[in-house]
Input
Amino acid sequence: MQSTPKTFRIKSFGCQMNVYDGERISELLTDNGLTAAADGEDADLVVLNTCHIREKAAEKAYSDVGRLKREDGSRPMIALAGCVAQAEGAEAKRRSPMIDMVVGPQAYHRLPEMVAQASRGARPVDTDMPAISKFDALPKRRRANPSAFLTVQEGCDKFCTYCVVPYTRGAEISRPRADIVAEARALVEGGAKEIVLLGQNVNAWEHDGHGLAGLIREIARIDGLERIRYTTSHPADMTDALIAAHGEVGKLMPYLHLPVQSGSDRVLKAMNRSHTSETYLRTIEKMRDARRDIAISGDFIVGFPGETEEDFQATLQIVDAVRYASAYSFKYSARPGTPAAQMEDQIAPEVMDDRLQRLQARIAEHQLAFNRSTVGRDTQILIERSGRHPGQMIGRSPWLQSVHVESSAEPGTMLDVTLTAAGPNSMTGAIRQKDAA
Ligand code: SAM
Ligand code: SF4
Output
């Protein structure tokens, strides 16, 4: 039996929504009298906030549990949270006797109660998706990073044939507008200069007849807030109103993450994506008409069952057509319970490796070209953290590039810079004279 924990540590894996959940869990535990363990210090309670999207990520959760055993044979109290917890439920306790409690992404507001139960020797599991919003049970936001995440929408009804999200995160729900605006205000009061609105399909957010564009316009009115971003968007929910907002709302940053997954219409159909390469490209065109300098990012899956070399060539073509400023690419991973896992023609690992390498090389060319195209621009960066060298700080440009700059400005400072040099993954900036004075 574990004694009542006094200190805790949270390890979040996977998407930004897990990072957000990790922050909320931390606030919740702090409110309930626990203290975050200092760096290097053993924590009494470890929350593993896991990701189930690909097999590797899910397996990592169990190896991480194993690693929590200390040299003297003791271990902290362990809570398995996140999407692996949701997908595995009580099975997780059978797979690893070290796990003291299992809590899904819609139930973590109950963690303090579960910790108390575990201290009494129970091994509680809660993977309910209750109708009442967990958000109502969470404490008010107090401190925030310069760039703060804010989840506005959860779950997904799209059922792409490869994806576990509709099963682990449940049906699509939008948080009420007033709650989001109140949380955004609290984040700005707590020090946020940028708010990143999050959702599995963030652009499907809808409440009281308002869509995401209306929400962005409302949040943009908050004094002290400098920047707004949102992620991840689905091509089918990219409304004209949202596209127009990019041309009209100054605080909305010129960056759009719009996953396409494949350039082949045959593969897109088998994936149950509701867009074609043509409709996707039309959306990109409209976006560029609304905001000429927009940086486009995306997600790709290579090696979906049945993908031929010709299909893969179509993916390379769409990369060239869009000229991505950045993109994430993954090898297809068969997930239990998804339709694609049952499909014939699963692709050999070495074919996937080869395609992934070629795709990443092509994306890297466009990323470097985009970065080079911004050299010489006068712009603003939001300082986020210190760099590796003394006197160096790192900030983000409007196009989400990391920008290294010689400066002693504190995180949260908006700095006027000129972008002076481009690398494949970051930029160098120089402070413009009026700030240097
Ligand atoms: N809702 C977003 C969309 O549809 O664009 C994506 C959310 S998903 C959490 C993030 C990315 O993981 C997807 O865009 C996809 O590229 C990748 N992904 C999802 N399931 C996968 C799988 N079974 N194998 C490999 N990559 C996967
Ligand atoms: Fe997964 Fe598709 Fe939903 Fe995105 S839209 S979360 S890829 S099912």
